[in-house]
Write a structure and sequence with these properties.
- 37% of the residues lie in helices and 21% in strands.
- It has 7 helices and 9 strands; from the N terminus they run βαββαβααβαβββαβα.
Amino acid sequence: MLDTLAPHGASVFVALADTPASRKLHYQLRYQVYCRKLAYEDPARFPDGEEHDQYDEHAVHFLAFDRRRGDWVGTLRLVHPGPAGLPLASVAGLSSSIGQLINRERVLEISRMCIHTPGVSGGAQDSYESIDAAFRAAPLVFFALVRASVAYAFQAGMSHLAFLTAPSLLRLLRRLGIHQVPAGDACVHRGLRYPRVLDVAGEFRHLIEKLHHHPLSPHIPIEPYQRYSSLMSEMSSRAVRFAVG
């Protein structure tokens, strides 16, 4: 029934995981991708089948639903600067200007962004090639998740979003018209990675306010994301109306 809640014509929509059940689903998807499919997190550490770490305590979580598959397929979290810092700061050398923004709590990090794509698999040796392939195979889900992160950051008053990315995903970002700039030195973290940063206000204008100019606009909702709790409430209301009718 979830696919009936998407606006007409939308192939993909994103939900803010604002309930225990939705966060559990988010962690379960991460487990399937990071532990089972890509094999670079040890499944034995997560006997409940939910992959999580210390950064989740100060993060907000998103889920992407793909109507073409009729299921939740993607995740993304936005990590707030907190006691544990930002994940990318532990593996990459960041520029002083980005460090100052982090200290002022003006930056969120896009992290644990993944798409569970059937037929894309790999072990520890080719795991990042596999996850890059998943994004390239599902650019609409990737685009929708980035839009949601930009919208949330803008509404939260943040100035920038930071993230680590592979060369292939840099090319995808450019192809999708998502503007970003270097945030520090390249590093080796399960492959060559580049710290990047995007300007929230600029991308909000480009990806949210002027969405109608983007070639993917017919396939995604105007609203960047909905709350999972609102989706479940609407589903319940429709079920009651159907039962009464």
